[in-house]
Amino acid sequence: MAATRSKQRPVFVVDGARTPFLKAGGKPNAFRASDLAVAAGRQLLLRHAIDPSVFDEVILGCVMPGPDEANIGRVVALRLGCGKGVPAWTVQRNCASGMQALDNAFRNIADGRSELVLAGGVESMSHAPVLLNEDMVGWLADWSRCKTFGQKAKAVGQLRGGHFKPIIGLLRGLTDPVVGLSMGQTAEILAQRFGIDREMMDAYAMQSHKRLAKAQDEGYLSEIEAIYDTRGTVYDQDNGLRRDTDMASLAKLKPVFDRHFGLVTAGNSAQVTDGAAMLILASEEAVQKHNLPVLGRILDSQWAGLEPSQMGLGPVHAMTPLLDRLSWKLDKVDYWEINEAFATQVLACVEAWKDQDYCSNELGLKKVMGEIDPATLNVDGGGVSIGHPVGASGARIVLHLLHVLKRTNGKRGVASLCIGGGQGGAMAVERE
User: pTM of the full predicted structure?
Assistant: First the structure.
């Protein structure tokens, strides 16, 4: 029987590492998803001289593993040298897959089922599949049954242009099939609901790039490990940063999701990106046994659902009960990481907690939650500038939040994401 919350064991984050987040440029980038996860995991293990075979399990979040990486968690575990005896598995919760992997590791350690777990997330969005449509699949089935030259000639004569129309897996994956809206269209809905105009979105996007530029210049991204492709090219920083971003250049960009009346552009949206983040989670006993350092502690997590067309507000639905359970007021949280799927989505979350109607009717609160201090939110940039490799972002924001707390001598932090399909996830961490 699982332990009650009061009897759960403390769970510590030993350390973590991530790859640079590499912007997709049309063609597949140099690294497949397993390459990225292995690159992050290998450096992490080398840093602490941990024998990979001592892990109780490996858990990896990924939305679109390649056809040769179906259970990518197991592929990565074996490539890291964990050996055949270490079980490994893959989780998928859309944009929060990396956080889901951490949550599973956290729960298993807290309940006494595991002692030491390697967990994180990865995505190679530039390798998203391009699929055959159903007409072509049907034609290929017929073709496979053709035996004679005449049958094959007849089949070829039945081919039409429509057979060759591809299905872009990435675009399908970023569209909700229940409400028929792309993620960008849901962001437009939030902009209208909370009166967020284009200037506000672009100003937030510019801030994201400025903060990332400062973080790079000041050496605040120490969790990044350089990676090398087969041609010897070195990647040591997130390459989606646009240092020259200003309001004038952002204003020139046209809306993407509602071309006539929309406000959401490529400039104020998260970038399509490849990347991985891996963390080591441990019980107190494992920390002592293996003489491991401690970066921080995971205290609790929360998942929530909401109307899919409002999916960007998922963070407030997840963070609200989490904060209530911990008895944390907003001003008692030192830093926040809310994944920047869209500039307007983060701004809408901030506005929702200030809105009496939303807090009362949607969150069931008697009064407003309050306002997050902008100086404590995504202090080193976010998805708009860094990128949002969907399977990895949940792990990245938890890892970076702990680094921010360490750097600033902060104590408490909350990381959260919106999730395609109408969900939200949140995780509370602490440094002692």
Answer: 0.94
Strand partners, 337: 415
Among candidate residues 309, 352, 328, 325, the one with its CA nearest the CA of residue 412 = 328
Span of 172-176, 290-294, 323-327, 362-366 with lowest mean pLDDT: 172-176
Q: Could you tell me which residues come within 8 angstroms of residue 367 by beta carbon, excluding any fewer than 6 positions away? A: 356, 359
Identify the pLDDT of residue 175.
Answer: 83
Active site residue 95: yes
Question: Which listed residue (62, 349, 359, 418) is catalytic?
Answer: 418
The number of residues making up the chain comes to 432
Angle at CA of residue 429, ends 381 and 363, nearest 5°? 80
| Tokens (6 digits) for 381 | 């940039």
**Residue 67 burial class via C-beta count within 10 angstroms: exposed 0-12, middle 13-18, buried 19 and up:** exposed
When pLDDT is cut at 50, 70 and 90, the band that residue 3 belongs to is very low
**Given the DSSP bridges, would you call strands 175-176 and 181-182 parallel, antiparallel or unpaired?**
antiparallel
Q: Active site includes 82?
A: no
pLDDT higher than threshold 80 for residue 1? no
Contacts of 125 (CB under 8 A, 6+ apart): 24, 64, 170, 272, 273, 274, 389, 390
Q: Got the DSSP string for 209-245?
A: HHHHHHHHHHT--TTB--EE-TT--EE-S-TT--TT-
**Distance between CA atoms of 287 and 283, rounded to whole angstroms?**
6
Annotated domain spans of the chain: 181-220+299-430
β pairing state of 181-182 and 11-18: unpaired
Look up 48 and say whether it is catalytic. no
pLDDT (tens digit, 9 = 90+) per residue, 50-94?
A: 899 999 999 999 999 988 899 999 999 999 999 999 999 999 999
Q: Is the pLDDT of residue 150 over 60?
A: yes
Q: Which CATH class is domain 181-220+299-430?
A: alpha beta
Of the candidates 95, 127, 209, 317, the residue annotated as catalytic is: 95
Residue 6's pLDDT is 56
- Model pLDDT, residue 5: 53
Please tell me which residue in 127, 209, 317, 388 is annotated as part of the active site: 388
Region label for 226, one of left (φ > 0), alpha (ψ between -120 and 50) or beta (otherwise): beta
Region of poorest pLDDT, from 70-74, 88-92, 179-183, 310-314: 179-183
